[in-house]
Amino acid sequence: MDQVLSYLPPFEGLLPKWLVFVSAVSAINSIQAYCSSQYTSLLYTNGSVPCEPLSGRVFGTWTFLSAVIRMTAAYNLTTPAVYDLAIWTYVIALTHFTGELIFGNASLKGRFLSPLIVASSSIAWMLIQRKEYLGL
Ligand SMILES: *[C@@H]1O[C@H](CO)[C@@H](O)[C@H](O)[C@H]1NC(C)=O
Ligand SMILES: *[C@@H]1O[C@H](CO)[C@@H](O)[C@H](O)[C@H]1NC(C)=O
Ligand SMILES: *[C@@H]1O[C@H](CO)[C@@H](O)[C@H](O)[C@H]1NC(C)=O
């Protein structure tokens, strides 16, 4: 158990662990999006709007980039540039998800609620704790 814990980010609090968790989930989602555009369609609209295979892979590519930045941030949480990049991954995601609700290619129910909740709560959490971790 201690061995496993030693791989966790060397910072206090739940935020770095949360970033590792979300990063791992993002990476898995990214692989799922690459494997099948049906995954992306189910995520956005519970299957009612089909997803182009290219759109699914682009979603997977962008999600993987977010995963890399979030993982980097978890292990470098006191580095301002990296901390802010992680916030940006959530701001970009939330903007995109909210935009799709407006464009009608996403529906406010089922699976689509979790990325909305994760992005908005992470932004709030990271902004509230910013001073504490960066010591600014
Ligand atoms: C990021 O974290 C790793 C591991 O803790 C460390 O080796 C590296 O120096 C950090 N990089 C920055 C820019 O803080
Ligand atoms: C998806 O978005 C496009 C605009 O980007 C819009 O024309 C289309 O009607 C939307 N699809 C649905 C099912 O709402
Ligand atoms: C999602 O779609 C399935 C099958 O089309 C349906 O049974 C289910 O109720 C839908 N879920 C939501 C949250 O709309």
Structural overview:
- This protein has one domain (13-130).
- α5 packs antiparallel against α6.
- With 136 residues, the chain is mainly alpha-helical.
- The chain is globular.
- Helix content is 76%, strand content 0%.
- The chain has helices spanning 2-5, 15-35, 37-45, 53-75, 80-103, 113-134.
Task: State the total count of DSSP E strands.
Answer: 0
The assigned structural class equals mainly alpha
Unreliable stretches covering 5 or more consecutive residues: none
Tally of discrete structural domains = 1
| Global mean pLDDT | 95
**Main β-sheet: number of strands, strand sense, barrel status?**
none
Radius of gyration: 16 Å
Number of helices: 6
**Heterogens:** 2-acetamido-2-deoxy-beta-D-glucopyranose
Query: SSE order in H/E notation?
Result: HHHHHH
The geometry reads as: globular
Helical content stands at over 70%
- The end-to-end span amounts to 34 Å
